[in-house]
């Protein structure tokens, strides 16, 4: 198949990678995200195509909901003007190459199942715990996209009816309780003070403070992990997956909470399933985008 371009579009930066069909990264670089996005993206891709004339296809992962068949962005409010863009058809016309487009969390999930922690499992759910809570479901090697490109929006499963207001406009969504943003709120509510800075703790330090015995940090950890376990259990009731892979920025501190999460999930399991930590970090979305081209 030759070389494939994988592109991961985020709110502040765009990651490009040139990848072979085995998932080996041959070149990689990032550029800032600029609005209006499409003409800027096309310009950068045409420049890339000049540098790598032997590309066989381009895979794109982007925030927001995507109609994977048409490659149209069906819902995205943060990137102005991106919603409604026919990414696939416009880029195929501009480049003459095959283009596939999907949600960034779905792409990260695809990378983990084809190349990483979920390899060998036919049915896997991958959760990305960062600023928000994202997900992707890979069954028999294919992304479950849903009717409108919205499958895998784990962060918008309602965890607490009539709970905290979410950015989507509904109340009680799970990412208000299981995410980096949720940790910041919980730290404020429990008044978790970092002994070294004498200020409110940063989310990346929260779990280490709990290990060190800070009572308020332990309280936050318990609330967070209990809610996380319920989210995972609910997914099993719907998907009956064989494996859950967990990644994202919050998982960077997993050495301090992973075993505790396993303990909380275990009594909630309907049937046994594996839980694994993601292999890939920030490159997961780019790698998975490239894998969209590998049939």
Automatic annotation (TrEMBL):
This is ROK family protein. InterPro entries: ATPase_NBD, ROK, ROK_cs. CDD domains: ASKHA_NBD_ROK_FnNanK-like. Belongs to the ROK (NagC/XylR) family.
């Amino acid at each position: 198949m030759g070389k494939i371009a994988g592109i991961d579009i985020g709110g502040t930066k765009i990651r490009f990678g040139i990848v072979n069909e085995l998932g080996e990264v041959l070149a990689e670089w990032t550029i800032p995200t600029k609005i209006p996005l499409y003409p800027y993206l096309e310009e950068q891709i045409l420049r890339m195509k000049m540098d790598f004339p032997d590309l066989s296809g381009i895979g794109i992962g982007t925030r927001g909901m995507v109609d994977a068949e048409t490659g149209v962005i069906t819902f995205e409010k943060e990137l102005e003007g991106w919603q409604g863009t026919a990414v696939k058809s416009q880029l195929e016309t501009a480049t003459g190459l095959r283009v596939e487009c999907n949600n960034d969390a779905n792409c990260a999930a695809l990378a983990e199942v084809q190349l990483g922690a979920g390899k060998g499992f036919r049915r896997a759910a991958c959760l990305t715990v960062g600023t928000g809570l994202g997900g992707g479901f890979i069954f028999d090697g294919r992304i479950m996209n849903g009717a409108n490109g919205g499958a895998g929006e784990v962060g918008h499963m309602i965890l607490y009816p009539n709970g905290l207001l979410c950015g989507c406009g509904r109340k009680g969504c799970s990412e208000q309780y299981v995410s980096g943003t949720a940790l910041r709120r919980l730290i404020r509510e429990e008044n978790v003070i970092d002994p070294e800075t004498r200020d409110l703790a940063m989310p990346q330090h929260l779990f280490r403070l709990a290990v060190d015995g800070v009572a308020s940090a332990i309280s936050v950890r318990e609330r967070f992990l209990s809610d996380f376990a319920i989210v995972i259990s609910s997914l099993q009731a719907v998907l009956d997956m064989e494996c859950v892979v967990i990644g994202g920025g919050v998982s960077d501190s997993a050495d301090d909470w992973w075993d505790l999460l396993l303990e909380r999930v275990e009594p909630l399991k309907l049937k046994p399933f594996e839980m694994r930590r993601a292999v890939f970090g920030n490159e997961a979305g780019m790698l998975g985008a490239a894998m969209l081209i590998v049939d």
